[in-house]
Amino acid sequence: MVKLAIRSAPEIVVTSASPTDEHRSFLSTGAAAVVGLVVVAACARIWGLRWGLPDSTHLFSYHPDEYHSLRGLLSLALSGDLNPHFFNYGSLYLYLVSAAGVLGHGLLISSLSLETIPEALRLWTLDARVVSVLAGVLTVVTVYVLARRVWSNLPAVCCALLLALAPLHVLNSHYATVDVTQTLFVALVLLFSVRLAESGRWQDCVWAGLMVGLAASTKYSGLLVVVAPLTAIVLSCGNKASGCRGSEAAKKMLIVLGTAVLGFALTSPFTFLAWSEAKQGILHELQHMHVGEPLAVAAEPNAFWFHAKNLLAPGAGPIVALALVGWAMAVVRRHRQLLPIAVFACLWAVMTGLANVRYARYEVALLPALVILGIYPIAQLLRARRGYRWAGYLLIAVCVVPLLLWTGQVCSSLVRCDARGEAAEEILRVTPRDARIGLVRDPWFDVPPVDYCNGGTVLRQNPLWRLYHRPVRDLVITGLDQELLSAQAPHTFVLSGFSSRAGLMAGDAATISFVSALLSDYQRRAYYGGLPLSFVPWELGSDWLYPWPEIQIFVRKSSPTAGGE
Q1: Rounded to 5 degrees, what are φ and ψ at 527?
Q2: Is 94 within 8 Å of 86 (Cβ atoms)?
Q3: H-assigned helices in 268-338
Q4: Can you give the pLDDT at residue 4?
């Protein structure tokens, strides 16, 4: 870099800027970018963070999995036990939630009682969501740092901004679940893999391995990201200039694998200390992934197309298209820094496509790789001659505008009055005190709070939570049994889309017969919920609908209070 200093004399003196000046300029630019990205990412994730929290009408939150994230904290509070006694996932997120609960509302632990448990569940669920928010924001920063190593500041900022505004990542950052935290560690593995591919340094092997262990300790599927540092080692040792030999590459791979085991063991210790208990949870998850949920599989038989739909809309369609181009460019050009990311992205897509469980959240960990690969073609255009740069800016706009549209709809919808509360008021209005309310299954997250204990069949059978049963009317659980519906003939029936959606999409005979009988014998009085996103051309995964379940209220036609809609 050269500066021209013009003095009072007619001479021109050429001076060189010091390296310190350049370093300070880079730091100031990078710091400003990070601050801006943190503000954008945090605002999108905090907006609507209190949706569906427990209140005076329902004991558990309106997300079906958030209770399980409190298992470690509840185990500590109720029995002083560090063993979370829940091994469907690793334990790291449970311990992070426990730490957040202790720091945020630790006094509740010493004063826990039947009277204070409901308030504790509300506050601790919010604490757990804050962990997801922090993990989401840190993931955005990590992606910026990673992209900055590969490209200049502008492509790096655009790359991180795409993740900061990605609707799928933003929505899951509002959930007290493991996916966003796992994605943070996946992104860190990718960062250290890029560094490893560049230099082959031993310390990057250690850090990459530790992050692999933490990713797997958050959710077992995170182990797959180990392919990124292993690929980076092969690439760095394949470079003749590095002087790396085969034996050295093998040692580096062993370091990655060894530190991964160490990271997992330190953060999920009871997986080994209580192996007989942990084995049951692990086998349950493996069986679940293999068998899946039959109606959901029948409704969406092609998992690859299912995940493609959830990535293409809402919002990420342009990014996915550019990521495919970037993936091809990285492979064809043998881009040393991007190849580990390309290998991971390909294998992750295959893994989720082969699983027989259909949830959009399985794509969250893929998003950092998608935005990094997707920015590659844009970065090339921005580096081209001036005549081609406009195309890069245009592509940035094409990517950002849909994200802003859908993320704005997601967040603004989360702060509105929950449809379950509105539906509960209507149910009480149309159902006499001595009448009964029918449901397909025990009250859970997806139906109005007709019982204060809304934990579904499993939690409602637990002796502790059974103490909180407080139904607003007598309840009738019919399943999808047409004959039982006719025999019990409840005055009011509440049908959730989570009970019927997959069956209707799959053409399931029992579901169709049940819904037909319901429509024949009952009059629909109200409809609530539904995905509040525009321009989505197909059905999305059910976990998109956790904040907005489709709820229909029916009143029996023979009832004297039944009337027109």
Answers
A1: -135, 135
A2: yes
A3: 270-273, 275-291, 294-299, 303-311, 317-332
A4: 39
Query: In 10 A of CB 560, how many CB atoms?
Result: 8
Instruction: State the Cα–Cα distance between residues 371 and 560, nearest whole angstrom.
Output: 58
Ramachandran assignment for 347, one of left (phi > 0), alpha (psi -120 to 50 degrees), beta (any other): alpha
- The beta strand positions in 300-435, using DSSP E, are none
Q: Where are the beta strands (DSSP E) in 498-556?
A: 522-528, 551-556
The closest of 187, 206, 185, 205 to 196, measured between CA atoms, is: 205
Residue 272 has φ and ψ, to the nearest 5°, of: -95, -40
What are the pLDDT digits (tens) for 408-433?
Answer: 999 999 999 899 999 999 999 999 99
Greater model confidence, 301 or 385: 301
Q: What pTM value is reported for the model?
A: 0.92
pLDDT for res 27: 55
Scanning the structure block, which residue is given the tokens 């989360």? 414
What is the per-residue pLDDT for 246? 75
Q: Cβ distance 327 to 373 under 8 Å?
A: yes
d(CA 538, CA 167): 16
CA distances 502 to 120, 205, 298, Å, are 34, 45, 8
Residue 476 pairs with which residues in a beta bridge?
Answer: 438
Residue 501 is which amino acid?
R
AA letter at 542: S
Each residue's pLDDT tens digit, 505-514 = 999 999 999 9
Q: Residue 111's pLDDT is what?
A: 86
Residue 365 — φ and ψ, nearest 5°?
A: -65, -15
- What tens digit of pLDDT does each residue of 170-225 get? 999 999 999 999 999 999 999 999 999 998 899 999 999 999 999 999 999 999 99
Peptide bond before 314: cis, by omega within 30 degrees of 0?
A: yes
Of the pLDDT bands very low, low, confident and very high (cuts 50, 70, 90), residue 243 is low
For residue 475, the tally of other CB atoms under 10 A from its CB is 17
As given in the structure block, the two tokens for residue 26 are 């880079």
User: Using an 8 Å Cβ cutoff, are 259 and 375 in contact?
Assistant: no
Distance CA 160, CA 319 (A): 12
Of 188, 186, 208, 214, the closest CA to residue 252 belongs to: 208
SS (H, E, C) 492-513: EEEEEHHHHHHHHHHCCHHHHH
Pairwise CA distance, residues 456 & 196, whole Å: 47
| 12, containing H or E segment | strand 12-16
Check residue 508 and give its pLDDT.
95
| Nearest partner of 510 among 490, 482, 478, judged by Cα | 482
217 close to 88: Cβ distance less than 8 angstroms: no
Residue type, 273: L
